[in-house]
Write a structure and sequence with these properties.
By secondary structure, this protein is an alpha+beta fold. The chain has three domains: 195 residues, Tetratricopeptide repeat domain (Serine Threonine Protein Phosphatase 5, Tetratricopeptide repeat), CATH 1.25.40.10; 69 residues, no CATH class; 76 residues, no CATH class. The protein is built from 16 helices and four strands. The protein is globular and about 70 Å long. The chain starts with a helix and ends with a helix.
């Protein structure tokens, strides 16, 4: 009876941790998102301890996943790497190959986030062998998908093609439509990276989406623009040059009206040629992870970047940044009275340097 109650309590904690983590990932306010991630971390950590005591391997792996993802969201990649590494050592002593394969995959995700693509690829190859030995087709497909992604991130598209195609085949054999769509996108991205878009299976859909983009500009249809961009992103069978061509053509037809419409979509262009100003919105969590990897471990009171956009303008690649800086809610009363808070002053430098990270 006691074991059943403990298992139910652990399951409830994991369910709550998952909910908090999902909320954190979509939360627009940084402090609230961090607080939700902290709560997810606490709940998942407690569940992990309980799962260890109960020798429940499946629950343990799930709890570890939430612990690691929460730590990654909080920007603590070192802690995420340590948690996965420690658990992996314990699992290997037990000899649970299924759990080992899953934790190796999780550790590889952390390594990819840290930029250690070679280490991630080595781990994923080991996980693939474990999944093959146990006959886990779903595990093989997921591992191959991750391996292809790691190779792409390392700018090795030729090495990414085979695992991407193998993942696509396995997902199709299992009838996993979502996995098949993801793998297809990866295959398309590989051919795009190799400058062989004519071989990309999704190129016809991408070309249609580009036509829809052009129509959206001509008709000043924001909804159609958004839909076309989503479809284009879904296929992965395009390059920035494709989008620039659509924009340039629109500007040649009606520079003033097209420029106004494009500006409303987050793209500003001048001169009738290709866009001279590209804007991208940066994820706050990712920015502070990158700062940490570069050796700058900012505490809560110096994480002042909120909404942030980086821009490159003109042929000289002049850098600009637009951001919102806000003193942390954790600041003491005397800090809020300062005309120029040290965190705000440093945040001004962060906003400029973040674009190049």
């Amino acid at each position: 009876m006691a074991l059943a109650v403990a298992a139910a309590s652990t399951a409830a904690a994991l369910s709550e941790a998952k909910a908090r983590l999902e909320e954190a990932e979509v939360e627009s306010q940084w402090e609230i998102g961090q607080a939700k991630a902290q709560e997810a971390l606490r709940l998942a950590s407690d569940a992990l301890v309980a799962a260890r005591r109960a020798s429940d391997a499946e629950t343990k792996v799930t709890a570890l996943e939430f612990v690691v993802r929460a730590q990654m969201h909080l920007g603590d990649l070192f802690a995420a790497n340590l948690a996965a590494t420690d658990e992996l050592a314990m699992i290997r002593r037990i000899g649970d190959t299924g759990a080992e394969a899953k934790v190796v995959q999780l550790l590889s995700e952390v390594q990819i986030a840290r930029g250690d693509y070679a280490g991630a690829a080595d781990g994923l190859q080991k996980a693939l062998t474990l999944h093959k030995d146990s006959g886990d087709a779903a595990g093989q497909a997921k591992t191959l998908e991750m391996l292809a992604g790691a190779k792409l991130a390392a700018r090795k598209p030729s090495d990414a093609l085979t695992p991407a195609q193998d993942a696509l085949r396995l997902f199709a054999e299992m009838g996993d439509k979502e996995g098949e769509e993801r793998a297809m996108r990866t295959v398309n991205m590989v051919f795009a990276e190799k400058n062989q878009l004519d071989k990309a299976p999704g190129r016809p859909q991408a070309l249609q989406a580009l036509k829809d983009l052009a129509t959206a500009v001509d008709e000043r249809d924001s909804q159609r623009w958004t839909g076309a961009m989503e479809e284009l992103t879904r296929t992965g069978a395009y390059t920035q040059k494709d989008v620039d061509g659509v924009v340039s053509s629109a500007l040649e037809k009606d520079r003033a009206m097209s420029a106004t419409f494009l500006e409303d979509q987050g793209i500003v262009a001048r001169g009738g040629g290709a866009p001279e100003l590209h804007m991208k919105e940066a994820n706050k969590t990712i920015q502070y992870i990158n700062f940490r990897l570069g050796g700058l471990n900012y505490g809560p009171r110096f994480r002042c970047l909120r909404a942030y956009k980086g821009m490159v303008q003109g042929k000289e690649d002049t850098l600009h940044a637009l951001c919102c800086l806000q003193v942390s809610d954790q600041a003491e009363d005397w800090e809020t009275q300062l005309q120029f808070h040290p965190g705000i002053l440093d945040g001004m430098l962060q906003s400029g340097s973040a674009y190049s990270l």
